[in-house]
User: Which sequence fits this backbone?
């Protein structure tokens, strides 16, 4: 059975929780990289793990699920099974408090796994849950990254709209990120899922996308981050990428097509957001006039 194991219990007051998972919704490693960078930039404390060996099929073709081994000179030195790590940032008066969870999306028993996560949420009275995902999108690396969002409550949209995110419409197979968000909705805890779009020709990493999501998280949580610490990483990656693109005329033509489509989508954004705002107003009015509900005070919308 999945269970939370804390090596020590920090004293936290209603922290935010940020979760990243290797696996299906981790294009270019962005979901995990966002949490890893937060751990490094904020010098967080490793406080425990979520033990859930029965939730993984270690022979899954996904490399994320395979045990990781260290072999030197023909000698096996270590072997690590998939696990979920918990880090904490305690307030020193200058930063909001934060919990970070980094793991591998489970193959089995999602309900048990998420229930163990909820023992963490309840123990520390988490005020808001952020799940991070990423997906391959039809965008070029030469334009600002797209970030899409899903929320547990329509009232959270106003806060996110100021960060210039899109709001996802989707029906189909889902990820552990959305499963967790659904349980947030059921248990009336604020939940936000941030999804970074990744250019379709990138594989191992997408530093600009990671920095974009970190910037949004910084504004939403109030955490102060030093982006200059990541600029050399972004510049080095994009310099190497440009060298590779310069050698491939077919890829250059594809990127130009993506740039044209991206620029057109920016032109259409204002119309799309206007339609969305109208739909939110209509939804609010339907809820307001639902039979059996108490009308709000006259000074409230």
Assistant:
């Amino acid at each position: 059975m999945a269970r939370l194991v804390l090596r020590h219990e920090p004293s936290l007051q209603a922290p935010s929780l940020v979760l990243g998972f290797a696996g299906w919704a981790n294009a270019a490693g962005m979901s995990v990289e966002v949490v890893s960078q937060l751990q490094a930039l904020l010098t967080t404390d490793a406080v425990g793990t979520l033990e859930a060996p029965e939730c993984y099929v270690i022979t899954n073709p996904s490399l994320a699920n395979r045990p990781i081994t260290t072999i030197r000179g023909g000698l096996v030195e270590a072997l690590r099974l998939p696990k979920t790590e918990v880090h904490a940032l305690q307030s020193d008066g200058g930063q909001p408090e934060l919990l970070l969870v980094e793991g591998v999306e489970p193959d089995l028993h999602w309900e048990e796994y998420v229930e163990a996560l909820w023992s963490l949420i309840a123990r520390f009275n988490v005020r808001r849950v952020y799940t991070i995902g990423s997906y391959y999108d039809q965008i070029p690396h030469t334009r600002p990254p797209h970030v899409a969002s899903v929320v547990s409550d329509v009232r959270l949209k106003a806060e996110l709209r100021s960060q210039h995110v899109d709001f996802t419409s989707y029906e189909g197979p889902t990820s552990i990120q959305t499963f967790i968000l659904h349980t947030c909705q059921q248990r009336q805890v604020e939940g936000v899922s941030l999804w970074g779009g990744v250019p379709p020709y990138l594989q191992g990493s997408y530093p600009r996308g990671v920095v974009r999501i970190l910037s949004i998280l910084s504004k939403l949580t109030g955490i102060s981050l030093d982006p200059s610490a990541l600029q050399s990483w972004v510049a080095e990656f994009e310099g190497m990428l440009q060298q590779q693109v310069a050698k491939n005329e077919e890829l250059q033509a594809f990127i130009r097509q993506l740039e044209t489509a991206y620029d057109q989508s920016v032109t259409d954004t204002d119309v799309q957001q206007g339609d969305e705002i109208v739909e939110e107003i209509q939804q609010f009015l339907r809820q307001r006039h639902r039979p059996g509900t108490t009308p709000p005070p006259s000074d409230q919308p």
Summary: Helices lie at 30-42, 110-123, 157-161, 176-187, 207-221, 228-246, 249-288. The radius of gyration is 21 Å. The chain is about 40% helix and 20% strand.
